[in-house]
Structure formats: C-alpha cells, structure tokens
C-alpha cells in the first residue's frame, strides 16, 4: 500500500467505517452524558482529540523501548498524564466549560477508544501514521459528539451554540443561534434517555446509508457480471 | 527471569517519573491561572448579590468558616464573605444549604445587609427537575430576585412561605416543594445572621490563607 | 427479537386479534362516560386526536415498511393504543402533547420494534412516560372535577382550550384550575402527597374538597368505570383474570402493611385502588398480551411486581402516580420472568 493510500484508508476508517462512536461504540459514557449542548460536546470532543493525538504519537515514539509485558500499564500512564494535562489547561483557560464538563473530563482516561488505538495501531506503526490515525479517530469521535449535541440542543432548547463563550471566550456569545422558540422545552432530549434514543437513530441512519451504498455497489457488480456472461455466450 | 523483571520494573519506573514530571510541569505552569479563575468565578457570583458601591475590600480574602446544622441546613462548613466599605462592614454573603429540595440539597449564596435586609440570593448548585423546579436559577427566571430588600422580622416571620402555604412568595406551577425549600433556607440564613451578627462582623479572618500559606 | 415463549394452547384462531381489540375498546366505554360526566368534554377531544394521529402514523409507517396496510389497520390495535393514550393524558393538555405522544407510541415503540406482537413495551404507556418526563408542566395540569370549577365549561370551551390554550371567554388553563382561593388544584394523589410532606395526616388532608365524600371526587367513578369494563372483559374471556387479580391483591397487601405500620401517613387500600390509573392499569394495560408475561406463574409475579413498584413510587417517589413507570419496568423484566417461569414440559422432571 502506498503511503498516500494508507492515509486515505486511515481517514475513511476513522471518520466512517470504523468510527469510534457509531461503529465501535466506545466511550459511550461521556458521549451520552455531556452532549446536552453543542458547546459541551465540542469541548469534550476537542479534549479527546488532543489526548488521542498526543498519546498515539508518544506511544508510537516509544514503541521500541517498551517491553511487551509492561506495555499496557505504560500506555495507561501516558494517557493519564495527557488527560491530566488537558484537564489542567482547560481548568485554567476555559473555566466555565471545565465546570460544566465536570467529572467527564478526567474520565477521558477510561475512554476505551484511546487505549484501543494505542494498542491496536500506534504501538505498531511509525509516528506520522500513528498521529494521523489518532487525529482521524478523534475527529470521528468529535463529529459524532457534535452531531448528537446539535440534535439534542435543537430539540431540547431550540438553540445552537448556547454557552459558546465558555469554550471560546466572551466574544463567542454572538454565535448563539436561536433556531426556534417555544415556551416548554422538550426535556427528553436533554435527559439521558433522550441521548440513548438519539444515538440509536444516528446509528440506524449510518447503517441505512451503508446498506444503500452496498446495494448500489452490488448492482454495479451484478450488471458487470451479466455482461461478461453474455459475451461468453456469444462467443 | 529476574533480569527481565527488574528491567521491566525499571522501564515502568522511568515512565512513571517521566509522566509525573510532565504533569507537575503543566500544573506548575497553570497553577496561578487556575487560582485566578476560581477567584474570578467566586467574585462574579459575589458581585451579583452585593452592590459594587457597597464595598472596597478584597471580598474573596475577607471571609470565615461557619457551621450551623440547624439554620444553615448542613453539617458541612459554610463560608461567610464580608464586604466592607472603608473598613466598615456593609454586607455579608453566606453560603447555605436548603436540605429539603425536591431532588436533594440546593446550595445557595445569601447576601444580607448589616440591617438584616436581603441584598441578593443566588442558587449555586441544585438538581431540581428541569422545566419545573429549575426556575430558581437566575438564568431561567427572575423569581429569586423577589427576595431582594425583604427582611425577616418577628411580625412577618409567618409570611416567609410560598403562597400555597399562606406566605408572600410565588410558587411555580407544578412545583411547590422547590420554592418552599428555598424560601425556608433563605429565612433560616437570615435568622442565623441575626443571631450571630456580632461574631460574624467583628473578628476578621481569612479562610483562604491557611490553605496555601505553607 | 422474536423469541417468544407462548404457553399452550398453541393453536391460533385467525381473526382473534380484531375481535379482542373491539371488545377491549367497547369495555372502556363506562370509564369514558364517567370521565365526560365528571370532567367535561376534554378527554373525548384528546381521545379523538390520539386515535386519529395513531391511525395516521400507523398507515404512514406501514406504507414505508411495505406492509399490508389494510390488514394491520383493521386489527384495531392502533385505535386501542390511541384510545388508551387519550384516556391517560390530562384533559386540558394542549393538542401537540397528544400528537407527539401518539406518533411516538406508534412509530417508535411499536413499529420500530417490528409492529404488533413484537413490541417490548406497552406503546401507550411508553408514550405517556415520554410526555410526562418531557413536559411535566402540561402533563400534571389535571382538571378538577366540574363540581369544583368556578366557571362551567362547554364543549367549545374545551375545544378552544386544547387547541389554543384559552377558553372562548379568554380564561387560560391555569385560571380554570384555580379554585376560589386562587390556588391551583391538583389530583387527589398529588394533593395527598403534598400534604403529607407538609406534615398533615391523611385524615386532615382528606378534609379537602378534591377528595369529595369518598376517595377522590370524580376519580373514584372513573376507576369504577374501568373496573366494570374490566369485569366485562374477564366475563368475555378477552383478558386473563390472573393479572388484575394479582395486581389488585398486591396493592391491597402493600398498602395494608403500610397502613398498619403508620396509619397517619399512609392512604387506605381503597384510596390506592380507586385513584389515579389503578383500574386502567389492572384491566387494560397490564393485560396487554404482547408485553405481559406469558405463563400463569409468570403473570402472577409480573402483576405483583407492578403493584409493588406502583406502591413504592406513590409512597416514596417523586411522582404522585406511577402506573406508567411501573408498567414499563415490568415490561422490561418480562423476558427474564418468562425465562424462569417456563412451564415444565410434560414428562420432564423438575430441575433437569
């Protein structure tokens, strides 16, 4: 496989085919808990992305130095260190968001997507590909978070980017869009059961798209085969 | 075998040291910013309940720990922040707890002027039902502003209740327990202030210095 | 997920479903009449909305799924779901509440699980929980009995109230619910719960007009209506008597125990039986053949468990009534109950 193709494959895997949120169903706990607003979702998404890239790069860098027997504790150490750093930085520079994410920021450590990538990919591949893989997986996870956050925020309170100033600083409060206004909120969307239901619909949508693509592909191959058969007949 | 174990242990230890170094480095770099942020946050809330013209001291430093399981609603330590204008105490902001909310404790910040009237109340933390009980938050409704300017005295003590119980404060449609709990807690905090006014205002101390003085 | 462990007899009578559904629909009549008599036209309007939206969503969804629309529409199950939902929402709830509920009941709870016979949960109750959790304000605005209203409401007033939020004379739902003292009125269950937290005893609380002379003004007769309908269904052998009997016995047992321990803070069995949705649940919801347990032993356990949960939430929980929550929790445990109460095959030894 050429290097270019490999990057293409990594992108495809991370964003769609092997998406940590929609396909591997990893890290569901933070995924479902913090996606009440788009801002919260993006905050956690960026944090996870950062940790994934850093941990993948580091793991790949040290992959020859680490004895096989103790690799897991070392990976965990590295991930925990990066999570703590991200947590400290967010505490310092995005204090409001840090408070609204609460316990789920330190819980990134337990997100299986991260240790999974470290073990499955980064520990076997050179640093460039490993960081790229971390970036794409993180991006895939973040996109799912953002989609879920947007759906729940629109349904739940009819806004988008509510509280964006917590993430980006005071200027960002202009980003807040009121999609529509109603007096009574659709609370289910904000509550945890709504998260599960919305997640179910997202996964269903992904599967439906996949099924459609497959059908299309099958049709194409089918027509090709028939053509060849006919040619054989004539001959 | 032994060789392998000690090798592994050494590698592990090295990584542990490396990671700890990294974390302590970041901690050292962000320490001051975090502390500033926390104080800023506290100050922001305090400013909401205490008029800025009524003090010129450093609010976050002039505070003391208090405990009163009866009137402040919890066995835990609460904090009183004292606002002074030219060394003269004007307002005290007390953290207190409404223990009987619909879904558990409601944490409040109650600011009282020295004459006993309320300067402002804010809910710091609660788990009330969204859409019903969360109207105690200033973001959702200005109900909590009803307290401003009111005083608990012997003649009106019975009126410190929600309308459903014959008092003077509105309840919310569909939720009576939450406002009832908040009204009761604010009333109790006022009573606490009345009772302990002298000790609260006279000896000034700091509740912050102790922690990071070392 | 079509693992079902049906108890014998295993023969199926074609056309049985529409017949049973018709009977069940017929059996709700006494309760509907009682509701109209005591609470006005509101519930009829809600039922009309719920049934039509349920039918419409069923048709649309069946069309999308390429199913035989005619055969499945005429089995009456969508009508029954709409009817039960319409009966359970407060009569003054705005129209969109009922619409959202019906669509959710049919499209998500029933059709997404595979249609009639495959739904894990009772569609009407799942939709009710969705509404109660999402719109607590509207879903708890029950109208007090006509007798307690300060102004009388005509059919048109109800219609305006449901669709615009105001009566023809411009009163809002909120104002209608006020009594002469300007205090919003709640259901008997709700009132009792609030009073108990205030430190009143049950007897003191019962002095209030909401409770009427007996259990709860109007409510007792609606429940009696459901009871009559239910007895009719048992007589016609449309439902299994085991479930309502065990459910009511369970409720009697738990409330009697609590009453004997602390009579001041516990309501009587009769109050539990005749208030809220007790009878509706006992005869019309828990007996749903799809989402209930299948074997006799399983059904007894299923109904007792429902009674326990209803009692616990009514007594200790945050919500005044708990029928819907308890039904969903029990529905959820049906596969497990069925697993452990599978009837022993003839000729096999126990424990093999």
Question: Which secondary structure elements does this structure contain, and how are they paired or packed?
Answer:
The complex is a heterotrimer of chains A (235), B (214) and C (352).
Chain A: H1 3-17, H2 28-34, H3 38-61, H4 71-93, H5 95-101, H6 112-120, H7 127-157, E1 159-160, H8 164-168, E2 177-178, H9 187-190, H10 192-234
Antiparallel strand pairs in A: 1-2
Helix pairs in contact in A: 1-7, 3-4, 3-7, 4-5, 4-6
Chain B: H1 2-49, E1 63-68, E2 74-85, E3 88-101, E4 104-113, E5 118-125, H2 177-201, H3 209-212
Antiparallel strand pairs in B: 1-2, 2-3, 3-4, 4-5
Chain C: H1 16-27, H2 29-39, H3 42-64, H4 69-73, H5 77-88, H6 95-111, H7 123-134, H8 136-139, H9 155-164, H10 173-176, H11 188-197, H12 202-205, H13 219-235, H14 242-261, H15 269-274, H16 278-285, H17 296-316, H18 323-340
Task: Tell me what you see in this structure.
The complex is a heterotrimer of chains A (235), B (214) and C (352). Chain A has ten helices and two strands. Chain A is mainly α and 235 residues long. In chain A, α1 runs parallel beside α7 (127-157). Chain A is globular and about 60 Å long. In chain A, 42% of the residues are buried. Helix content of chain B is 36%, strand content 23%. Chain B contains three helices and five strands. Chain B has helices at residues 2-49, 177-201, 209-212, and strands at residues 63-68, 74-85, 88-101, 104-113, 118-125. Chain B starts with a helix and ends with a helix. Chain C is an all-alpha fold and 352 residues long. Chain C has 18 helices and no strands. The model of chain C has no long low-confidence stretch (mean pLDDT 79). The chains are: A mainly alpha (235), B alpha+beta (214), C mainly alpha (352). Chains in contact: A-B, A-C, B-C. At the A-B interface, α4 of A face α1 of B.
């Amino acid at each position: 496989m050429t290097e270019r193709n490999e990057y293409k494959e990594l992108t495809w895997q991370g964003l769609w085919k092997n998406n940590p949120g929609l396909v591997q169903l990893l890290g569901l706990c933070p995924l479902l808990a913090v996606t009440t607003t788009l801002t919260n979702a993006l905050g956690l998404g960026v944090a996870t992305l950062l940790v994934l890239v850093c941990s993948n790069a580091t793991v790949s860098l040290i992959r020859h130095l680490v004895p096989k027997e103790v690799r897991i504790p070392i990976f965990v150490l590295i991930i925990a260190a990066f999570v703590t750093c991200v947590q400290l930085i967010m505490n310092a520079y995005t204090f409001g968001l840090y408070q609204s994410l609460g316990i789920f920021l330190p819980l990134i450590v337990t997100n299986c997507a991260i240790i999974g990538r470290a073990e499955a990919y980064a520990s076997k591949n050179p640093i460039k590909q490993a960081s790229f893989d971390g970036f794409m997986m993180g991006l895939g996870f973040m996109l799912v978070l953002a989609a879920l956050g947007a759906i729940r925020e629109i349904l739940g309170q009819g806004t988008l980017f509510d509280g964006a100033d917590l993430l980006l600083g005071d200027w960002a409060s202009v980003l807040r869009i009121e999609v529509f206004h109603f007096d009574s909120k659709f609370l289910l969307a904000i509550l945890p059961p709504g998260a599960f239901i919305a997640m179910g619909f997202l996964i269903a949508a992904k599967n439906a798209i996949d099924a459609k693509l497959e059908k299309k592909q099958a049709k194409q191959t089918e027509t090709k085969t028939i053509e060849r058969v006919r040619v054989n007949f004539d001959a | 075998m032994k060789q392998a174990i000690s090798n592994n242990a050494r590698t592990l230890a090295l990584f542990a040291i490396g990671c700890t170094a990294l974390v302590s480095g970041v901690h050292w770099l962000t320490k001051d910013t975090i502390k500033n942020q926390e104080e800023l946050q506290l100050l922001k809330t305090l400013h909401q309940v205490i008029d800025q013209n009524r003090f010129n001291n450093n609010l976050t430093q002039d505070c003391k720990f208090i405990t009163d399981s009866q009137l402040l609603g919890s066995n835990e330590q609460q904090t009183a922040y004292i606002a002074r204008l030219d060394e003269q105490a004007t307002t005290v902001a007390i953290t207190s707890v409404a223990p009987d909310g619909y879904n558990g404790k409601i944490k409040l910040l109650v600011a009282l002027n020295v004459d006993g009237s309320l300067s402002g109340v804010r809910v710091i933390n609660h788990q009330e039902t969204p859409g019903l009980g969360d109207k105690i938050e200033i973001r959702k409704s200005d109900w909590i502003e009803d307290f401003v300017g009111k005083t608990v005295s012997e003649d009106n003590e019975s009126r410190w209740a929600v309308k459903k119980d014959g008092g003077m404060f509105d309840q919310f449609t569909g939720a009576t327990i939450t406002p009832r709990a908040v009204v009761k807690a604010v009333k109790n905090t006022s009573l606490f202030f009345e009772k302990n006014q002298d000790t609260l205002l006279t000896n000034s101390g700091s509740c912050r210095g102790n922690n990071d003085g070392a | 997920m079509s693992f079902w462990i049906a108890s014998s007899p295993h023969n199926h009578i074609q056309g049985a479903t529409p017949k049973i559904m018709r009977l069940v629909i017929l059996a709700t009549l006494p309760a509907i009449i009682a509701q109209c008599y005591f609470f006005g036209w509101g519930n009829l309007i809600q039922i009309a909305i719920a049934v039509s939206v349920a039918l419409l969503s069923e048709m649309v969804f069946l069309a999308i799924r390429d199913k035989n629309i005619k055969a499945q529409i005429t089995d009456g199950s969508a009508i029954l779901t709409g009817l039960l939902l319409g009966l359970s929402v407060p009569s003054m709830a705005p129209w969109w509440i009922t619409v959202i509920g019906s669509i959710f009941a049919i499209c998500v709870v029933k059709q997404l699980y595979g249609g009639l016979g495959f739904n894990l949960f009772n569609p009407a109750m799942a939709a009710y929980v969705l509404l109660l959790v999402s719109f607590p304000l509207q879903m708890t605005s029950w109208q007090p009995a006509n007798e307690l209203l300060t102004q009388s409401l005509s059919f048109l007033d109800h219609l305006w109230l449901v669709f615009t939020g105001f009566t023809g004379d411009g009163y809002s739902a909120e104002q209608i619910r006020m009594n002469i003292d300007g205090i919003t009125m709640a259901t008997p269950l709700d009132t009792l719960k609030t009073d108990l937290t205030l430190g009143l005893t049950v007897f003191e609380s019962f002095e209030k007009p909401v409770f009427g002379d007996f259990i709860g003004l109007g409510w007792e007769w609606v429940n009696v209506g459901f009871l009559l309908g239910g007895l009719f269904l048992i007589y016609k052998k449309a439902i299994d008597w085991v479930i309502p009997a065990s459910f009511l016995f369970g409720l009697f047992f738990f409330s009697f125990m609590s009453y004997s321990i602390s009579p001041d803070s516990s309501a009587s069995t009769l109050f539990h039986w005749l208030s809220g949705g007790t009878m509706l649940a006992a005869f019309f919801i828990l007996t749903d053949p799809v989402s209930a347990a299948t074997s006799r032993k399983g059904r007894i356990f299923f109904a007792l468990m429902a009674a326990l949960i209803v009692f616990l939430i009514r007594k200790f929980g945050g919500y005044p009534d708990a029928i819907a929550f308890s039904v969903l929790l029990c529905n959820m445990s049906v596969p497990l109950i069925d697993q452990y109460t599978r009837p022993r095959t003839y000729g096999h030894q126990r424990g093999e």
